[in-house]
Amino acid sequence: MAPLRFSANLSWLFPELPGLPARLRAAGSSGFEAVEVAWPYAEQPEVLARAAREAGLRLVLINTPPGDQEKGEMGLGAVPGRQAAFRQGLEQAVRYAKALGCPRIHLMAGRVPQGADRIAVKAEMEIVFLENLRHAAGVLAQEDLVGLLEPINTRITDPQYFLDTPQQAAAILQKVGRPNLQLQMDIFHWQIMDGNLTGNIREFLPIVGHVQVAQVPGRGEPSSPGELNFPYLFQLLEDEGYKGFVGCEYQPRGEGWPWGRELWRDDRGCFLLVG
C-alpha cells in the first residue's frame, strides 16, 4: 500500500507571492515534491521548467486554457461553436506539458452559454464534448499524455459549468472509450454535489487519474473546520490503492502548507490530522 503523495496547487497556494517561479521556490522550500497549476501560460515554459528543476519539483497537472474569460468562458471543451479554439488551446497545453514534463492535462468542459437553458442544450453540448475529447485523446496519445475530466459543482462554485457530477463525467468517459482519458476527483466538488464520498470513491477510483482536496464548505485546508473527515478519506484512498497525487487546491489560512507538517500516523499507521 503506497503512501499518499501531495502536490501544491500554485494557483491557490502561496498567494502572497507574485508569480509562478516564486511560488515554485516556496513549494520546494515547504517540502512538496510536486506541483500543479491551472494556467501556466503567462510564463514561458522554459522559465517554469528551469524554476521547477531548481526547486526539485515535478509538475503533475495543468489545465487547457480557459478561453475568453472577459466574456465569461471557463473552458471550451463542450461549448458549441468553439471547437477550433478548443483545439488551438489543446495544442498550447500540449506544448507546455512537454516542456514541463507534465503527464496530465485537465480538459476543461466549459460553461453552458449565457442565457441558454441547461436542459435544452445538454445534448448538443455533450455531442461537442465527445467530438473534442476523441480528438484530444488522439493528440495526447501521440505524446504519451493523459487527459482528465473534472466535474465542478454548480451549487456554489460555478452554476453554469456543464460537467458537474462524477456520474456525468464517467458516462462521458465510457462513451469516448479512450484509455488515456480519466476522471479528476476534486473531493470538494464531489461532496457539495452528491456526498456519499465513500461509495463514490470506491466506485470511480479505478478511472481516477488525479485527486484534489479542500474542506467543505469554506474551501480551506483539510485541517480547517468543516464537514469532511480527511484522516478517514486519506486512509480510504490508500486502502483502495490510489497511487497518484493529491492536489492541495484550497484557500490557505496562512502558510500554503501548514497542515502538512501536522499530518501524522498513530502506532497503527492510521492518519491523524491536527488543525
Report on this structure:
- The structure is a single chain.
- With 275 residues, the chain is an alpha/beta fold.
- It has a single domain (5-273), classed as TIM Barrel (Alpha-Beta Barrel), CATH 3.20.20.
- 36% of the residues lie in helices and 16% in strands.
- The chain has eight helices and ten strands.
- It has helices spanning 20-29, 45-55, 83-100, 118-142, 166-176, 187-193, 197-204, 230-239; strands at residues 5-9, 34-36, 58-63, 104-106, 146-149, 181-186, 208-213, 245-248, 263-265, 271-273.
- Helix 1 (20-29) packs parallel to helix 2.
- The longest helix is centred in the middle third of the chain and has 25 residues, at 118-142.
- Catalyzes the reversible isomerization between hydroxypyruvate and 2-hydroxy-3-oxopropanoate (also termed tartronate semialdehyde).
Task: Label this structure with key terms.
Xyl_isomerase-like_sf, alpha/beta, hydroxypyruvate isomerase activity, TIM Barrel, 8 helices, Sugar_Epim/Isomerase, 275 residues, two-stranded antiparallel sheet, Putative hydroxypyruvate isomerase, 36% helix, eight-stranded parallel β-barrel
Secondary-structure blueprint:
Elements: E1 5-9, H1 20-29, E2 34-36, H2 45-55, E3 58-63, H3 83-100, E4 104-106, H4 118-142, E5 146-149, H5 166-176, E6 181-186, H6 187-193, H7 197-204, E7 208-213, H8 230-239, E8 245-248, E9 263-265, E10 271-273
Parallel strand pairs: 1-2, 1-8, 2-3, 3-4, 4-5, 5-6, 6-7, 7-8
Antiparallel strand pairs: 9-10
Helix pairs in contact: 1-2, 2-3, 3-4
